Amino acid sequence: MRHFRPVIWAAALAAAFFFYTTYRHGGSPLNLGSWLPSSGKLELTEASHGSDSLDAEEQTNIAVYKKVSPSVVNITSTAVSFNFFYGLMPQKGQGTGFVIDHEGHIVTNYHVVEGARLVEVTLYNRKKYKAEIVGTDQPNDLAVLKIDAPNLTPAVLGDSHGLSVGQFVFAIGNPFGLNGTMTRGIVSSIRSVESPEGAFIDDAIQTDAAINPGNSGGPLLNSHGEVVGINAMITTGGAGQSAGVGFAIPINTAKAVLGDLVSLGRVRRPALGINGLPIGPELASELGLAADTGVLIMQVTPGGAAERAGLRGGTERAYLGNTPILLGGDLIVAIDGQEIEDLQDIARVMNNHRTGDAVTVTVFRGKQKRDFKLTLGEARQQA
To answer: How wide is the angle at C-alpha 351 spanned by C-alphas 266 and 335, nearest 5°?
Structure first.
């Protein structure tokens, strides 16, 4: 028995050591397989399906990106500012644009190239070209550039008129300089918004697709890969980046002015040729007008569209507070059947027309309601 005591003690110590090192520290019971020689092969469990397993939404995402990304460009603009200590200093900005024809015309935001001395465009294939600014439209925050490059792929311009809240939209651009980035969201709303520069964007497309600095001027697309808007601004919530509320200029607004921007370098804005006074219910009652709201014509521009059509301005001098006004003119209440309550309503109608278009203006002349057909002139300072 004495001869077996050392063996028994050795076995007990080995068992205690095994228990302490394995179970006490969260280990697992002894795996006999770990004591056996390994085959040296790593066996992985892999999926059996391939790319055919993409669902319909994923296929749409991929199709939109493949169709449009060759048309999207990165824009770098260099302006010059004055620093008290260092004198003239270059300042660089970045944005996005998209090709609209084979001649090399590119649409972007005005604020992307505002004040630029040098503009460079980088295509999807990383080739760089110097760009010329051929036309700008500050009120609509639009600009058209031109580059001399071969084999360009123009984007397809869609129709922003029939957009519905809830439909999918896609943004492709260069947020934070990350070229060729696509994000997806929905149309959150269609509303008029005021830009940081104070201009109004009528029927702006609100979307929750992520839009960040660098996306400005890039296309907002429908599920067919057609451009329905031009990404213009975001609500940052003070963080300087997307808060899920972005806005795009409707593409129909851009299409209405592209011809002028390319051929003239500016936009010939249409106008009625009047100086008008907005009328509310209280003022209408005080003046004894036939309608509660509208725009009272105080003056017609000599030789302008309104005068040529036979519309009349006021002849009776009066004061509204300390402001001199003219009373007795026609009261505009509708244009092409769209109700007019103030000068902003007239501006919205003008945004959907071009110089030379014919419109029907409905007015009250005294108590009599009349329609006048006129051909829109070019805007100067009048409505």
So the answer is: 140
Asked about 111 being catalytic, the answer comes back as yes
Look at the alpha carbons of 118, 119, 122, 123 in this order and tell me if their dihedral is positive or negative: negative
Domains of the chain: 158-251 (2.40.10.10), 270-378 (2.30.42.10)
Pick the catalytic residue from 137, 141, 260, 345: 141
Residue 344: what pLDDT? Answer: 83
pLDDT tens string 112-133: 999 899 999 999 999 999 999 9
Distance CA 343, CA 279 (A): 10
Whole-number mean pLDDT of the chain?
86
Residue 25 is among the residues annotated as catalytic for this protein: no
Residue 198 has pLDDT above 80, yes or no: no
Exactly one of 77, 188, 216, 242 is catalytic; which is it? 216
- Check if 141 is active-site: yes
Distance, CA of 274 to CA of 305 (rounded, Å):
8
Nearest to 188 by CA among 217, 211, 172: 211
Q: Cα-atom radius of gyration of the chain, to the nearest Å?
A: 34
pLDDT above 80 (res 17): no
Find the catalytic residue in 111, 202, 208, 242.
111
Q: If DSSP codes are grouped into helix, strand and coil, which group holds residue 321?
A: coil
